[in-house]
Design a protein that fits this description.
With about 140 residues, the chain is an alpha+beta fold. It contains two helices and eight strands, in the order ββαβββαβββ. The protein is elongated, with a radius of gyration of 17 Å.
Length: about 140
């Protein structure tokens, strides 16, 4: 059996304290023109900065900018999430000032101290996976 609770590691007592549950929020833009895509992310990379409170972004398959940040809890109101994240996104991509952001969502992720995912064994037939707190390109 594999336990993959990530931020909900507290469900297994042996994993308590190994992962910090953190709120992370993301906004998604309208589909971007080919010109904008080529100007902001021509190699279609997933990007994150090195800051402790990191920002991360990538393009979706339909060429929307997905921009996320760990932030204090906003609840689940998409308008509040967008209002908080759009100014941060514009610091990175001011060229998108006239772009519509159609989506905003968030949730709890699990972050390890060194930000590297953890895999391990609890007993002979019980394994765990946690701390997968990065947004990657598919």
């Amino acid at each position: 059996m594999v336990l993959a609770g990530n931020a909900y590691h507290f469900l297994e007592p042996k994993l308590r304290g190994a992962v910090l549950p953190v709120k992370s929020f993301i906004i998604g833009s309208e589909p971007l023109s080919t010109d904008l895509v080529n100007r902001i992310n021509p190699q279609d990379l997933a990007v994150c900065d090195p800051n402790y409170i990191l920002e991360y972004f990538r393009l979706s398959a339909d060429k929307r900018l997905l921009f996320g940040r760990r932030f204090p809890y906003f609840g689940d109101n998409p308008d509040i999430i967008k209002k908080a994240l759009i100014p941060k996104m514009l610091q990175v991509y001011p060229i998108l000032k006239n772009t519509e952001f159609e989506f905003g969502w968030g949730g709890t992720i699990g972050v390890t101290v060194n930000r590297v995912p953890q895999l391990g064994r609890i007993s002979d037939n019980v394994f765990y996976s946690q701390g997968y707190s990065v947004m990657v390109s598919m």
